[in-house]
Specification:
The protein has helices spanning 10-35, 54-69, 83-91, 102-110, 159-170, 189-194, 210-218, 230-234, 279-291, 293-297, 308-311, 321-330, and strands at residues 42-47, 73-78, 97-101, 119-135, 150-152, 180-182, 200-205, 221-224, 244-248, 262-274. With 332 residues, it is α/β, with parallel strands linked by helices.
Length: 332
């Protein structure tokens, strides 16, 4: 025989129902306070880079994922001349999020630029590789061979020119006297080299950079090793601690038909915002960036390097509190 459950009286039933409702309400309130009320809404501005660079391509693809994850958030992309320009746009309020190299951030801080103290990181992303590009038959085998030549050095507000100036100095050359610096970006440098108006150009970007790949399909070019400058570069001062020795593999640019890897220098890219950014928004953007790695990595190979294990190492910036909350939520 199945035992009969005792029947509650009317008042007891009402009290029990009220208690259950209160318990459920408290549980739902706890969930809301833990995870937020809803996906962020409003408008977000993201500064990227020059049209043919990796920053711009990454930004285009990330915009799609942000739109999918936060459908009520309008994402607008802003072009820029590179890392230093991105930092100026972020600190001036023209952009809400941006990308920049770690050395550019440290330089911006050391120069005590407006808003530098409010910079915060959301993630360390992928590394930029410094690329010195010449015609295949060029006599240039080292940056030391650039004396007297016309060299593309990046625009004045770019991270490319920042590292180029340091590399030229590490090579024992004077930036203004020993080379003819041509201050243009990756959107123009390949065409100038192709037309014989440049002898070489520097670029700092993820592998591969579309503009370099496209140039390699049009003419025979070569990447010059920069490995001999690692020691002299680090001797220039504390800001150069962000540069590390690296190797560009043979298959980085199949179009170049290289027979061996090229020693060079790399520097990390950071995704950043300001300390005043809404924590919920910063957490959501960080989550989208980490979750989009595989999809974006299919088109921007450098993005395949985005990894939870390294994303929190954002020297010289502290993590934004919203980003930190995301990493704690996914910690094993």
């Amino acid at each position: 025989m199945v035992p009969r459950l005792p029947r509650l009286g009317g008042r007891r039933a009402v009290r029990a129902g009220a208690a259950a409702a209160l318990t459920l309400a408290l549980f739902l309130w706890w969930l809301v306070s833990l995870h937020g009320t809803s996906a962020p809404t409003g408008r977000l501005s993201f500064a990227t880079g020059v049209p043919t660079g990796v920053y711009a391509k990454y930004g285009d693809l990330l915009k799609e994922d942000l739109g999918h994850d936060m459908p009520d958030l309008e994402v607008r992309l802003r072009s820029s001349q590179g890392s230093l320009d991105n930092l100026q746009q972020l600190t001036s309020g023209k952009a809400d999020f941006t990308l920049a190299t770690a050395d550019s951030v440290a330089t911006y801080q050391d120069r005590k630029q407006p808003g530098a103290e409010g910079l915060r990181a959301c993630a360390r992303l992928y590394d930029d590789y410094i690329q010195l590009v010449v015609e295949k038959e060029s006599a240039v085998r080292s940056a030391r061979d650039l004396k007297g030549l016309r060299v593309g050095v990046g625009t004045d507000d770019s991270g490319v020119q920042l590292i180029t100036r340091r590399l030229v100095k590490a090579a024992g050359l004077d930036f203004d006297r020993d080379i003819t610096p041509v201050r243009v970006g990756i959107d123009r440098m390949p065409g100038l080299l192709e037309n014989g108006e440049l002898d070489a150009f520097f670029w700092s970007g993820g592998l591969p950079t579309n503009a370099v790949s496209a140039l390699g399909r049009r003419m025979s070019i070569r990447l010059v090793q920069l490995g001999d400058l690692v020691g002299p570069l680090h001797a220039l001062g504390p800001e150069t601690r962000f540069y590390r020795a690296a190797v560009m593999p043979v298959d980085a640019y199949p179009e170049l038909r290289a027979s061996q890897s090229v020693k060079t220098i790399a520097v990390a890219n950071l995704l950043m915002t300001m300390d005043s950014a809404d924590p919920e928004l910063a957490e959501s953007v960080t989550r989208s960036v980490m979750n989009s790695r595989d999809r974006i990595g299919q088109k921007v190979h450098a993005a395949q390097k985005v990894d939870l294990r390294t994303a929190i190492f954002t020297d010289p910036l502290n993590l934004h509190k919203g980003a930190r909350r995301y990493y704690l939520s996914v910690k094993p």
